[in-house]
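Fold this sequence, please.
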Amino acid sequence: MKKTILHTAIVGSLLSISAVQAAPSFDADFELNTNAISKSVGDSTYSQDGRVALNVSGKHISGDNFFAGKGTALIKTDGTTSVDDAYIQLGNSAWDLQAGRFEGVNLFPKGKDTVVENVSIDSDVSVYEANWARGRADGDAGQFALHFNASENVKFELDTIYGSVDGDDTKAISGFRPSVTFNAGGATITAGYESVNYDQTATKKVKKSGYAIAANFDVAAANVNLAAAFGKNDETDDKVTSVTANMTYGNFGLGLISSSVDNKTGDDPSLLTTYVAYTMPVLDIENATVTLAGSYSKANNLAAGANDKITAARVRFNYGF
């Protein structure tokens, strides 16, 4: 009897240790796109691109506290490699700090956006997605994000871009992005503001700000996203307003994006983009799918000779392993 009790205690302790100090997890997935894009000006273009994403993550827990890390390496079909996520995260159930390379909360969700080719209507931005300070910045820039869980239904996030953006390292914080998410019954509502401010070159300054609100909810068996974003270039006083409405119903997705630019001088261009996607299993193989997708974008009030229409089609193979 004593041996049985001792054996149970030892096994339970070992299981407890393994749960608290779990071994790193590894997984990967392959994505291959075959694309065809037709514009109103110029020849149609055909291309193929893809990547293997290799993910590793780990987490250790002590009471309510945790320390976690994640890294995603991308091996691309064009022969190059890059990094998607690479961050550490520490804290507890009330708050946590995230640092490294990652993306903050999505303030402009597009649903099943397998291919979305928007007409280029402005040199700075065609569609504003409230993502200037969302993260995964190029160059030597890094990120810090503070998450605070006020309750099960109210969560705050403060994202910052730290250090070099476009080669500028004269400011510690080049951009910040506070947001709040409410879970209200069957809907999730997220609202946020962002601002970036740095010297791109000795003579060119980047100073932009914007805000957005997004809602996610279910309608019968469909999941719906609605979002509106408003951005401003504080240097030129140009403004852009973008809205999206999209739904995912099982393996099918459909979406609309409307965007307009209010230029301080000259014409005010606008665009409307529609996109659709449908995913099917391949040979009844688990974790293997093919997605057929397309998008159509049309713009108004563009300069003479500019592309005002883009039609895109994509076949995407996915395999998780």
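The first strand starts at residue 25 and ends at 39. Residues 5-19 have pLDDT under 50 and may be disordered.
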